[in-house]
Design a protein that fits this description.
The chain is built from 3 helices and 5 strands. By secondary structure, it is of the alpha+beta class.
Length: about 160
Amino acid sequence: MNSHSPQQTSSPAGSCAAGCADVPEQNLPSVVIERRVEWPDTDAAGHYHHSTVVRWVEAAEAVLLRRLGLAHLFGSTPRVHFEADYQARLWFGETVRTELRITKVGTSSLHYAFSVRGEGEGTAATGRMSIVHSAARATGSTPWPDDVREVLTKAGPQAPELFA
């Protein structure tokens, strides 16, 4: 792997090498979406399967990027880090809210934090995901274009996507 591959150029989630935007938190984009725990989301124990959190987080990311007018980034932002801590079970049919927040914007990386809550009081899962900007056939990461960086650092919280 060359020294410019996405896996080697991103900084770990939660830390930030030179080039991160020093942006007030209220300016960083975020979104909340609602989904339901569907039958295929459950495992043999009857509660949600751990991998469902990845899908909910990516659904929130898709809503956020579309709301920001950045749908053109689909296919050019590979994941380089994902971690989750699971704290509570979610059951078939339960309504789930996933909040996704941009926490840091690097030269070519982006760090998200997320939380997943069910209908009860507690948080079901929390975690972090990091992506890098890299064209579909590129061999490494590339800096965010100026217009994209502007949106990623100034758009602020977006309207939630909730069930009616």
